[in-house]
Amino acid sequence: xxILHRSPRRLPRRLVAxxxxxxxxxxxxxCGDDAEEVTVGLITKQEENAFWVTMREVAEDTAEEENVxxxxxxxxxxxxxxxxxxALESMTGAGAVGILIAPTDxxxxxxxxxxxxxxxxxxxAVDTPVEPESAVDALFATDNFRAGELIGRYASAExxxxxxxxxxxxxxxxxxxRSGELRREGFLQGFGIAPGGPPPASxxxxxxxxxxxxxxxxLLAADPGINVVxxxxxxxxxxxxxxxxxxxxxxxxxxxxxxxxxxxxIKNGVRPGTIDATAQQYPQNMAREGxxxxxxxxRGGEAPAEYLDTGxxxxxxxxxxxxxxxxxxxxxRNCWGD
Length: 338
Hints:
CATH class of the largest domain: Alpha Beta
Strand order of the largest sheet: 1-2-4-3-5-6-7-13
Radius of gyration: 20 Å
CATH superfamily of the largest domain: Response regulator
Helix content: 25-40%
Distance between the termini: 34 Å
Strand content: 15-25%
Protein backbone atom coordinates (compact mmCIF):
# COMPACT_ATOMS: atom_id res chain seq x y z
CA UNK A 1 0.00 0.00 0.00
CA UNK A 2 1.18 3.54 -0.75
CA ILE A 3 -0.07 6.43 1.39
CA LEU A 4 -0.61 9.67 -0.49
CA HIS A 5 1.94 12.38 0.15
CA ARG A 6 0.59 15.15 2.29
CA SER A 7 0.88 18.84 1.54
CA PRO A 8 3.86 20.36 3.43
CA ARG A 9 1.45 22.88 4.92
CA ARG A 10 0.16 20.32 7.41
CA LEU A 11 0.54 16.83 8.82
CA PRO A 12 -2.06 14.06 8.58
CA ARG A 13 -4.38 13.79 11.56
CA ARG A 14 -4.67 10.04 11.07
CA LEU A 15 -4.25 7.46 8.36
CA VAL A 16 -6.88 4.92 7.37
CA ALA A 17 -6.07 1.84 5.29
CA UNK A 18 -8.29 0.80 2.42
CA UNK A 19 -8.43 -2.99 2.49
CA UNK A 20 -8.01 -4.82 -0.79
CA UNK A 21 -7.02 -1.80 -2.91
CA UNK A 22 -3.55 -2.02 -4.41
CA UNK A 23 -1.47 1.14 -4.09
CA UNK A 24 -4.42 3.04 -2.66
CA UNK A 25 -3.96 5.84 -0.11
CA UNK A 26 -6.54 7.27 2.31
CA UNK A 27 -5.79 10.22 4.58
CA UNK A 28 -7.80 12.57 6.76
CA UNK A 29 -7.48 16.28 7.54
CA UNK A 30 -9.53 18.76 9.51
CA CYS A 31 -9.21 22.08 11.29
CA GLY A 32 -11.19 24.03 13.82
CA ASP A 33 -14.13 26.23 12.90
CA ASP A 34 -17.52 27.17 14.23
CA ALA A 35 -19.36 25.12 11.61
CA GLU A 36 -20.24 21.52 12.35
CA GLU A 37 -17.50 19.21 11.05
CA VAL A 38 -18.51 16.91 8.21
CA THR A 39 -16.61 14.19 6.38
CA VAL A 40 -16.08 14.35 2.62
CA GLY A 41 -14.18 12.02 0.30
CA LEU A 42 -12.13 12.71 -2.83
CA ILE A 43 -11.18 9.86 -5.18
CA THR A 44 -8.79 10.73 -8.02
CA LYS A 45 -7.21 8.52 -10.67
CA GLN A 46 -3.48 8.50 -9.91
CA GLU A 47 -0.63 10.67 -8.62
CA GLU A 48 1.67 10.72 -11.67
CA ASN A 49 -0.27 13.51 -13.39
CA ALA A 50 -0.04 16.95 -11.75
CA PHE A 51 -3.69 17.54 -12.64
CA TRP A 52 -4.81 15.04 -9.98
CA VAL A 53 -2.20 16.16 -7.45
CA THR A 54 -3.45 19.74 -7.78
CA MET A 55 -7.06 18.63 -7.36
CA ARG A 56 -6.18 16.81 -4.15
CA GLU A 57 -4.14 19.69 -2.73
CA VAL A 58 -6.86 22.25 -3.38
CA ALA A 59 -9.46 19.93 -1.84
CA GLU A 60 -7.24 19.66 1.25
CA ASP A 61 -6.93 23.45 1.50
CA THR A 62 -10.67 23.92 1.05
CA ALA A 63 -11.39 21.26 3.65
CA GLU A 64 -9.33 23.19 6.21
CA GLU A 65 -11.21 26.39 5.42
CA GLU A 66 -14.63 24.68 5.58
CA ASN A 67 -14.05 22.55 8.71
CA VAL A 68 -14.29 19.38 6.64
CA UNK A 69 -12.62 16.11 7.50
CA UNK A 70 -11.28 15.05 4.11
CA UNK A 71 -10.60 11.48 3.02
CA UNK A 72 -8.49 11.16 -0.13
CA UNK A 73 -7.74 8.10 -2.20
CA UNK A 74 -6.14 7.36 -5.53
CA UNK A 75 -5.23 4.40 -7.69
CA UNK A 76 -2.40 3.45 -9.99
CA UNK A 77 -3.58 4.75 -13.38
CA UNK A 78 -6.40 6.43 -15.29
CA UNK A 79 -7.97 2.98 -15.80
CA UNK A 80 -7.69 1.56 -12.26
CA UNK A 81 -11.34 0.75 -11.54
CA UNK A 82 -10.99 -1.65 -8.62
CA UNK A 83 -9.12 0.83 -6.43
CA UNK A 84 -11.96 3.31 -6.89
CA UNK A 85 -14.58 0.69 -6.04
CA UNK A 86 -12.68 -0.11 -2.83
CA ALA A 87 -12.37 3.60 -2.01
CA LEU A 88 -16.10 4.22 -2.45
CA GLU A 89 -16.89 1.36 -0.09
CA SER A 90 -14.31 2.41 2.50
CA MET A 91 -15.31 6.07 2.50
CA THR A 92 -18.98 5.17 2.83
CA GLY A 93 -18.13 2.95 5.78
CA ALA A 94 -16.03 5.73 7.31
CA GLY A 95 -19.03 8.05 7.42
CA ALA A 96 -18.47 10.33 4.43
CA VAL A 97 -21.55 12.46 3.78
CA GLY A 98 -20.36 13.11 0.24
CA ILE A 99 -17.75 11.81 -2.18
CA LEU A 100 -16.14 13.53 -5.15
CA ILE A 101 -14.91 11.00 -7.71
CA ALA A 102 -13.10 11.26 -11.03
CA PRO A 103 -14.28 7.96 -12.55
CA THR A 104 -11.72 5.71 -14.23
CA ASP A 105 -14.57 4.09 -16.16
CA UNK A 106 -17.82 5.89 -16.84
CA UNK A 107 -20.00 2.77 -16.71
CA UNK A 108 -18.15 0.13 -14.66
CA UNK A 109 -18.15 2.33 -11.55
CA UNK A 110 -21.89 3.02 -11.66
CA UNK A 111 -22.96 0.07 -9.44
CA UNK A 112 -20.48 1.07 -6.72
CA UNK A 113 -21.60 4.70 -6.95
CA UNK A 114 -25.24 3.66 -6.70
CA UNK A 115 -24.48 1.62 -3.56
CA UNK A 116 -22.90 4.68 -1.96
CA UNK A 117 -25.90 6.83 -2.84
CA UNK A 118 -28.30 4.21 -1.50
CA UNK A 119 -26.39 4.53 1.79
CA UNK A 120 -27.19 8.25 1.80
CA UNK A 121 -23.90 9.58 0.39
CA UNK A 122 -23.92 12.55 -2.01
CA UNK A 123 -21.75 11.65 -5.02
CA UNK A 124 -20.35 14.29 -7.37
CA ALA A 125 -18.41 13.24 -10.46
CA VAL A 126 -15.47 15.57 -11.11
CA ASP A 127 -13.73 15.92 -14.48
CA THR A 128 -15.25 12.75 -15.97
CA PRO A 129 -18.98 12.11 -16.52
CA VAL A 130 -20.65 8.80 -15.78
CA GLU A 131 -23.22 6.98 -17.91
CA PRO A 132 -26.03 7.40 -17.22
CA GLU A 133 -25.50 10.91 -15.90
CA SER A 134 -28.31 10.32 -13.38
CA ALA A 135 -26.08 7.81 -11.55
CA VAL A 136 -24.49 10.74 -9.65
CA ASP A 137 -26.01 13.73 -7.90
CA ALA A 138 -24.00 16.21 -9.96
CA LEU A 139 -21.09 16.69 -12.35
CA PHE A 140 -18.47 19.41 -11.77
CA ALA A 141 -16.24 19.39 -14.84
CA THR A 142 -14.83 21.01 -17.91
CA ASP A 143 -17.05 20.93 -20.98
CA ASN A 144 -14.83 18.26 -22.51
CA PHE A 145 -16.56 18.36 -25.88
CA ARG A 146 -15.94 22.12 -26.01
CA ALA A 147 -12.28 21.59 -25.07
CA GLY A 148 -11.84 19.16 -27.95
CA GLU A 149 -13.75 21.39 -30.33
CA LEU A 150 -11.51 24.36 -29.50
CA ILE A 151 -8.29 22.53 -30.29
CA GLY A 152 -9.90 20.95 -33.36
CA ARG A 153 -10.87 24.36 -34.74
CA TYR A 154 -7.40 25.67 -33.96
CA ALA A 155 -5.64 22.75 -35.65
CA SER A 156 -7.83 23.08 -38.75
CA ALA A 157 -7.25 26.83 -39.05
CA GLU A 158 -3.52 26.46 -38.42
CA UNK A 159 -3.21 23.69 -41.02
CA UNK A 160 -4.93 25.91 -43.57
CA UNK A 161 -2.70 28.85 -42.61
CA UNK A 162 0.44 26.73 -43.12
CA UNK A 163 -0.82 25.16 -46.32
CA UNK A 164 -0.82 21.62 -44.92
CA UNK A 165 -2.69 18.73 -46.48
CA UNK A 166 -3.78 17.35 -43.10
CA UNK A 167 -2.69 13.87 -42.07
CA UNK A 168 -4.23 13.49 -38.63
CA UNK A 169 -3.35 11.17 -35.75
CA UNK A 170 -5.33 10.80 -32.51
CA UNK A 171 -3.72 9.92 -29.19
CA UNK A 172 -6.80 8.97 -27.19
CA UNK A 173 -7.35 8.09 -23.54
CA UNK A 174 -8.97 4.63 -23.22
CA UNK A 175 -12.34 3.04 -23.99
CA UNK A 176 -15.08 3.69 -21.46
CA UNK A 177 -13.77 6.99 -20.08
CA ARG A 178 -16.30 9.57 -21.19
CA SER A 179 -14.09 12.64 -20.74
CA GLY A 180 -11.65 11.27 -23.31
CA GLU A 181 -14.42 10.27 -25.68
CA LEU A 182 -15.95 13.74 -25.50
CA ARG A 183 -12.62 15.41 -26.22
CA ARG A 184 -12.09 13.21 -29.25
CA GLU A 185 -15.62 13.83 -30.53
CA GLY A 186 -15.18 17.57 -30.04
CA PHE A 187 -11.85 17.57 -31.85
CA LEU A 188 -13.27 15.71 -34.84
CA GLN A 189 -16.16 18.16 -35.12
CA GLY A 190 -13.97 21.20 -34.61
CA PHE A 191 -11.47 19.99 -37.21
CA GLY A 192 -14.25 19.22 -39.66
CA ILE A 193 -13.89 15.44 -39.88
CA ALA A 194 -17.35 14.19 -40.71
CA PRO A 195 -18.94 11.36 -38.69
CA GLY A 196 -19.15 8.13 -40.59
CA GLY A 197 -16.13 8.89 -42.76
CA PRO A 198 -12.76 7.13 -42.59
CA PRO A 199 -11.46 7.70 -39.05
CA PRO A 200 -7.97 9.10 -38.49
CA ALA A 201 -5.27 6.76 -37.24
CA SER A 202 -5.44 6.46 -33.46
CA UNK A 203 -3.96 4.77 -30.40
CA UNK A 204 -5.04 4.61 -26.75
CA UNK A 205 -2.52 6.10 -24.32
CA UNK A 206 -4.31 6.07 -20.92
CA UNK A 207 -3.03 9.65 -20.71
CA UNK A 208 0.44 8.26 -19.99
CA UNK A 209 3.60 9.82 -21.45
CA UNK A 210 5.46 6.55 -22.09
CA UNK A 211 2.44 4.85 -23.64
CA UNK A 212 1.88 7.92 -25.80
CA UNK A 213 5.46 7.87 -27.06
CA UNK A 214 5.20 4.17 -27.93
CA UNK A 215 1.83 4.73 -29.62
CA UNK A 216 3.13 7.68 -31.62
CA UNK A 217 6.08 5.61 -32.77
CA UNK A 218 3.68 2.98 -34.13
CA LEU A 219 1.59 5.62 -35.90
CA LEU A 220 4.67 7.19 -37.49
CA ALA A 221 5.87 3.80 -38.66
CA ALA A 222 2.57 3.40 -40.50
CA ASP A 223 2.48 7.00 -41.78
CA PRO A 224 5.70 9.03 -41.47
CA GLY A 225 3.90 12.06 -42.94
CA ILE A 226 1.52 12.70 -39.98
CA ASN A 227 1.35 16.47 -39.54
CA VAL A 228 -1.57 17.05 -37.12
CA VAL A 229 -1.52 15.32 -33.71
CA UNK A 230 -4.44 15.44 -31.28
CA UNK A 231 -3.49 14.40 -27.75
CA UNK A 232 -6.02 13.77 -25.00
CA UNK A 233 -3.82 15.41 -22.35
CA UNK A 234 -0.40 16.98 -21.97
CA UNK A 235 1.53 13.96 -20.70
CA UNK A 236 0.41 12.30 -23.95
CA UNK A 237 1.46 15.41 -25.87
CA UNK A 238 4.99 15.30 -24.45
CA UNK A 239 5.22 11.59 -25.26
CA UNK A 240 4.14 12.29 -28.84
CA UNK A 241 6.70 15.09 -29.15
CA UNK A 242 9.47 12.76 -27.95
CA UNK A 243 8.51 10.24 -30.65
CA UNK A 244 8.38 12.91 -33.35
CA UNK A 245 11.82 14.22 -32.39
CA UNK A 246 13.26 10.70 -32.25
CA UNK A 247 11.91 10.13 -35.78
CA UNK A 248 13.75 13.23 -36.97
CA UNK A 249 10.62 15.27 -37.62
CA UNK A 250 10.88 19.06 -37.64
CA UNK A 251 8.21 20.18 -35.14
CA UNK A 252 7.60 23.27 -37.27
CA UNK A 253 6.05 20.85 -39.77
CA UNK A 254 3.69 19.26 -37.22
CA UNK A 255 0.74 20.76 -35.33
CA UNK A 256 0.37 19.29 -31.83
CA UNK A 257 -2.72 20.18 -29.78
CA UNK A 258 -3.81 19.01 -26.36
CA UNK A 259 -6.04 19.50 -23.31
CA UNK A 260 -5.26 20.45 -19.69
CA UNK A 261 -3.34 23.73 -19.55
CA UNK A 262 -1.07 22.65 -16.72
CA UNK A 263 1.75 24.90 -15.55
CA UNK A 264 4.57 22.69 -16.87
CA UNK A 265 2.91 22.28 -20.25
CA ILE A 266 2.25 26.00 -20.68
CA LYS A 267 5.82 26.92 -19.74
CA ASN A 268 7.69 24.05 -21.39
CA GLY A 269 5.35 23.14 -24.24
CA VAL A 270 3.13 26.00 -25.37
CA ARG A 271 5.58 28.83 -24.70
CA PRO A 272 8.40 27.30 -26.83
CA GLY A 273 5.83 26.15 -29.40
CA THR A 274 6.29 22.38 -29.26
CA ILE A 275 2.64 22.19 -28.17
CA ASP A 276 0.89 24.57 -30.54
CA ALA A 277 -2.26 25.02 -28.45
CA THR A 278 -4.00 23.52 -25.45
CA ALA A 279 -7.48 23.77 -23.97
CA GLN A 280 -6.89 24.88 -20.39
CA GLN A 281 -9.16 23.38 -17.77
CA TYR A 282 -9.38 24.10 -14.05
CA PRO A 283 -9.17 21.22 -11.53
CA GLN A 284 -8.84 23.74 -8.71
CA ASN A 285 -12.39 24.90 -9.45
CA MET A 286 -13.68 21.31 -9.48
CA ALA A 287 -12.10 20.50 -6.11
CA ARG A 288 -13.01 23.75 -4.36
CA GLU A 289 -16.59 23.91 -5.60
CA GLY A 290 -17.11 20.21 -4.91
CA UNK A 291 -15.96 20.26 -1.29
CA UNK A 292 -17.94 23.44 -0.61
CA UNK A 293 -21.10 22.04 -2.23
CA UNK A 294 -21.07 18.85 -0.15
CA UNK A 295 -20.36 20.76 3.06
CA UNK A 296 -23.27 23.14 2.39
CA UNK A 297 -25.65 20.29 1.68
CA UNK A 298 -24.58 18.37 4.79
CA ARG A 299 -25.28 21.46 6.90
CA GLY A 300 -28.80 21.87 5.57
CA GLY A 301 -28.17 23.85 2.41
CA GLU A 302 -29.24 23.06 -1.12
CA ALA A 303 -27.99 19.74 -2.45
CA PRO A 304 -25.74 19.83 -5.53
CA ALA A 305 -27.54 18.85 -8.70
CA GLU A 306 -26.90 18.49 -12.40
CA TYR A 307 -23.86 20.12 -14.05
CA LEU A 308 -21.39 22.84 -13.07
CA ASP A 309 -19.17 23.95 -15.96
CA THR A 310 -15.79 24.75 -14.39
CA GLY A 311 -14.45 26.54 -17.46
CA UNK A 312 -12.12 26.11 -20.45
CA UNK A 313 -9.87 28.48 -22.43
CA UNK A 314 -7.76 27.91 -25.54
CA UNK A 315 -4.12 28.86 -24.83
CA UNK A 316 -1.56 29.40 -27.57
CA UNK A 317 1.49 31.47 -28.40
CA UNK A 318 0.52 31.49 -32.07
CA UNK A 319 -3.13 32.51 -32.57
CA UNK A 320 -4.98 30.99 -35.51
CA UNK A 321 -7.29 33.05 -37.73
CA UNK A 322 -10.89 33.05 -36.54
CA UNK A 323 -10.27 31.05 -33.35
CA UNK A 324 -10.57 32.88 -30.03
CA UNK A 325 -7.65 32.21 -27.70
CA UNK A 326 -5.66 33.59 -24.78
CA UNK A 327 -1.90 34.05 -24.70
CA UNK A 328 0.83 32.21 -22.80
CA UNK A 329 0.97 34.84 -20.04
CA UNK A 330 -2.73 34.24 -19.32
CA UNK A 331 -2.13 30.50 -19.34
CA UNK A 332 0.70 30.77 -16.80
CA ARG A 333 -1.33 33.02 -14.52
CA ASN A 334 -4.32 30.68 -14.59
CA CYS A 335 -2.80 27.20 -14.86
CA TRP A 336 -5.06 24.77 -12.97
CA GLY A 337 -7.44 27.43 -11.63
CA ASP A 338 -9.00 30.61 -13.03
